[in-house]
Amino acid sequence: MSHDDPSTELRTGLRNHFRKVCKEQGQATVAKAIGYNPSTISQLLSGTYPADDSAVMEKFREIYGGITVDCPILSTISLDKCAFHRRREFAASNPVRVALFRSCPSCNVWKGGN
Is the pTM of this model over 0.85? Predict the structure, then answer.
């Protein structure tokens, strides 16, 4: 009986989804959507990417994962929308952005939870 590491299964599933989306939408489309060079996508698909692919795959997961999270400010939102708000600059003129700025750093989504 095999007891595979669940995180290995998740990474394998994500990589399979990555290959499928690249085949369906094209490498250039995926590269543009996640903000990486098409050559990076090509190297990942061919298994020749020379570095750790965690950042690329995390960005892919944000955009194409179809994952939703419970935001204490915006309710249920997609992971890519969550990532967008987390990366935004502080804007004191917008009360929602102030609330997000205060809430995002302590959110369990970006601390390995949820």
Answer: no
